[in-house]
Amino acid sequence: xFRNGQYQIVSMSLVVVACIPIFYKxxxxxxxxxELVLIAVxxxxxxxxxxxxxxxxxxxxxxxxxxxxxxxxxPEIGFLVGALSAIASNMIFxxxxxxxxxxxxxxxxxxxxxxxxxxKKLNQSYLGLIIYGxxxxxxxxxxxxxxTVFSIDRYFSWSRYxxxxxxxxxxxxxxxxxxxxxxCLLFRAIQTKLQRILVKYDxxx
Length: 205
Fold this sequence. Notes:
Layout: H1 6-27, H2 33-52, H3 62-73, H4 75-93, H5 99-114, H6 116-124, H7 126-153, H8 158-167, H9 169-200
Helix pairs in contact: 1-4, 1-5, 2-3, 2-4, 3-4, 3-5, 3-9, 4-5, 5-7, 6-7, 7-8, 7-9
InterPro entries: ECF_trnsprt_substrate-spec
Organism: Enterococcus rivorum
Keywords: Membrane, Transmembrane, Transmembrane helix
């Protein structure tokens, strides 16, 4: 598939894709400072969640906060919180060519959580949150393993990719557990506070 020299193209393409929702959202309507502040607070909360649990590999509430942001605020803000949380938290943990892959994967997780039919299911029961948390953990792990393949071989190798999936299984299971656990633990509390803020400051999703 991808050969030498295309690795950089893939990384830059992901950066461009991750920026599209930002331009789309703020080009189609007037800039809302209150909404920007709320997004900044959600990003800060997600980054703090990753920082507080950095001693425990793959066990962090960051993805759960991104999921909840998507459910409560819609797909665009869900993507923004995911992508911006990746680049902001990497100012602490280190930026690198893996950052675009993290921006895209966390962004997609937030975006899908905010899609109306997914949002409805996740709002209905904790079972939906558990299932989506597991799916999000699998997606993040599987997608980030593509970066690992590129970083080792400089091109995509299916044999290397499958080997990485097997060796990364303990981390993948940790991602899934953390997402499901923290989503259920934090969802109602964050949802209630966000709803109050949206009403109080007249912020439209």
